[in-house]
Amino acid sequence: MSAAIVRVSVALGACAALVNLLVWHQPIMEMANGHVWAVKVLFAIWFVLGWGVATGALTGLALSSMWLRSSGRLSAAVAFVVGLFLTFTVCLVLHRFLTDEKFMHDAVSGQRPDEVTSSSSIRGMDMDMHPGMDMDMPSAHTQAIGFNRVMALTPNFIAVALSVIYAFGGKRRRMRLSKPCRC
Amino acid sequence: MTTAVANANDFYELSPQLRRPARTIKLYIFLGWIAETTFLFFGMFMFPQLHAPWINRLIWTQIMCGIGMGAAVGALAYVAASGFKQGSRAALIITGLVAGTAYVVCGTVCYWVDALPGMDYWGSHENPALFLLKGDGGGFGLGLIGSWLLNTEKGVSLLNKIPFLR
Fold first, then answer.
1. Residue ranges per structural domain of chain A
2. Chain B contact for A56, CB < 8 A?
3. Which terminus of chain B has fewer CB atoms gathered within 10 Å of its CB, N or C?
4. Tens digits of per-residue pLDDT, B102-145?
5. Are the beta carbons of B64 and A93 separated by less than 8 Å?
6. Which DSSP string do the residues of B71-115 spell out, in sequence order?
7. What ipTM describes this predicted complex?
């Protein structure tokens, strides 16, 4: 059962990430725009791993731990809150990385944002160093602003809720309560 | 399989099979977190000129790269190898390959981000071979180490000594 909870949570998390990738394709893939298709594929896989599989795994971990302790309503509520907290933490960090240029600079740039002359410098300068990049590539994060936080987190909220229902739903609860004693 | 103990009320002693998913995910989170923290400090030592602000980099490397990617790799490795008995040769190979490949994807994206103009946070411009070695080579090695720990007698006895990975 513990294994099934993890599998279902991971599958639901991955679905949530795929929904986001389809709906917000342009702002999410902004960073990889203008690069060769291999980079786009790798970036999309990385996004699904981070936004979906990671959050699903963390939710599954929280749910299975709670389920093994108790299958009551209180446990379900606690598992839901913990699962949501872990999911939202990872998603919000990733969302901020994709939408907040200062955060992205601080996180993965060797220079302070004020040292970089303009936002376009991230992708605009030294274009000849990267032959895979198109010259008409848009500037960073211009469209990422449209990547609404509340809307982006909705599929993950639904995924966590469905995982909790699966783990603590009536049938599973009865299954756990009727476990044979192997004393 | 769960075995109930003397008081069958709420406390269950878990079989290794029941602990397997949580153990796999927790192990890869632990390994990923150690690797990311090491890379962070090693990078600061090797390329001190590339490290300016602290807090956002710490948030990114610890939450997203360490915990997030570790959990994703652990989940993928578990799902891929769950059809095989823990400790079998097939489980050992599949867990190692899937986890290693997932880390390589992650490391390659990391290298590509670092190589973008204006980025360069871990020396991909100064020393690309070192970056690829730590990202792809180290990542694949981490996947194999995790698989060895989960699927061999020596590895499991080592894990049993770590309280939260028991």
1. 2-121+141-177
2. yes
3. N
4. 999 999 998 888 888 777 777 777 788 888 888 899 999 999 99
5. yes
6. HHHHHHHHHHHTTS-TTSHHHHHHHHHHHHHHHHHHHHHHHHHHH
7. 0.86
